[in-house]
Amino acid sequence: MKARTPWSWVPTLYFAEGLPYVAVTLLSIEIYMQLGLSDAEVTFYTSWFYLPWVLKPLWSPFLTLLKTKRWWVNTMQLLLGAAYAGVAFTIQSDWWLQGSICFFWIMAFSSATHDVAADDFYMLSLDQHEQSFFVGIRPAFYRLSMIFGKGVLIMLAGVLQVMFRNQITFSWGLIFYGLTGLFIAFYLYHNFILPYPKGDVGHHEKNAHEIFADFLETSKAFFQQKQIFIVLAFILLFRLPEALLTPVSQLFLQASGSKFGLALSPQEFGLVNGTVGVIGLLVGGIIGRIFVSRDGLKKWLWPMTGAITIPNIAYIYLAYVMPQSLIAINIAVFLQALGYGFGFCAYMLLPIYFSQGEHKASNYALCTGFMALSMMLPGLFAGALADAVGYRMFFIIVLICCILPFIIACFLKVDAHFGMKEAEEEE
Question: Residue 268 has what DSSP assignment?
Fold first, then answer.
């Protein structure tokens, strides 16, 4: 049988990987906001959906005890389709909150499992040359799924709400039934097109007890690192301002004028945040990676710290000026996202730097768990804080919190050559 080109499955695999994450972390906020929950309730309920990504390092090593990575990819895509259908059905019922939260939880755990299986399957299926070739293609299609989820789907939901005279639950039901069909199609397509790599075996050379013992050993080694407190402080606090800002900014942009929000329609919000904002994030990330590969992360650490914090002032401008021009709003959101994308490069690269050593993969997995925790914990109270002080004062508090990343940057010690393209090639 002729080997299938990676072009036939890598783009669709990573598009499918990004979409449920967007649905869990952003579309859930959109639905609960439109259904009348307070900011405090919205951010509290939806922040808990990060928990599967926090716990992912605990259970991901056990996946291969049962089935192959290929099996997990396909099964999770089918389960994600079922979870979308569950959300579509329950939000139109009398118990919409409890039911939708249940299925969003299933979606979150399935998505986190799919992330692990897809990334491992990618590594097993491609040789080193192919992995290098697709290193930029994977995130590109992941970002496209963000534009589709945050932009197209929210705008489409707005159009449907106009067509069906503001029937919010019915409109979102159609959106999620559509996602159900899409993921059933992904399941059928990938079940046929994904290769069968030789290294993808449905068993592990160690049993569950041995895997758990290894996890405890590597975790102990991780927490015994000399700079562990700096590492954890960086991971948990470096993007604290953004963790506070992300859920509340979505609510602010669409809140009514009586709440001092900008009252954007779903169509306008999909354009501003889901399209222009994501493009800014993508462009900032590309620029940041180019600069780091040329000069190393150490040289750009302080500029990136400034970029991930100072542009948050854009939301103070929006909250106090409250511009009516959609162009002005787009520019402000784009500049904030551009800075965040540029600065986020440091946040992504430093855990890799901290994870070097004997247990590199396990250390990085633990870092990703804490990275998810850094988004979950602030989100639990972000909405309540915004409700208590109002959007204007909330964005000022976010800007004050921007002092923390600068303090943490003072204690970070990074090799001058880390991140340079030449240094990576030598390794």
Answer: H
Residue type, 243: A
CB atoms under 10 Å from CB of 46, counted, come to: 28
CA distances to 69, 93, 115, 283 from 195, rounded to whole Å, are 11, 41, 18, 33
Q: Residue 202: helix, strand or coil by DSSP?
A: coil
Q: Which residues in 97-241 belong to E strands, given as ranges? A: none
State pLDDT tens for residues 290-344: 998 888 889 999 999 999 999 999 999 999 999 999 999 999 999 999 999 999 9
Cα angle vertex 26, ends 22, 28, to 5°? 110
Token pair, residue 291, equals: 């600069």
Contact (CB, 8 A) for 241 and 378: no
The pair of structure tokens assigned to 33 is: 């906001």
> For the chain, what percentages of helix, strand and coil (3-state, to nearest 5) are there?
80, 0, 20
Residue 91 confidence (pLDDT): 96
Nearest to 424 by CA among 349, 351, 320: 349
Q: What is the pLDDT of residue 216?
A: 84
* Pairwise CA distance, residues 302 & 278, whole Å: 23
Cα separation of 113 and 79, whole Å? Answer: 11
The letter for the amino acid at 340 is: Y
Q: Please report, as a single letter, which amino acid is at residue 319.
A: A
The pLDDT value recorded for residue 164 is 93
How many other C-beta atoms lie within 10 A of the C-beta of residue 141? 19
Q: Which residues of the chain have a pLDDT value below 50? A: 1, 423-427
Longest dimension (CA), the chain: 65
Q: What is the pTM of this model?
A: 0.91
Cβ 242 vs Cβ 308: under 8 Å: yes
Exposure class string for 49-82: b at 16+ Cβ within 10 A, else e: bbbbbbebbeebbebbeebbbbbbbbbbbbbbbe
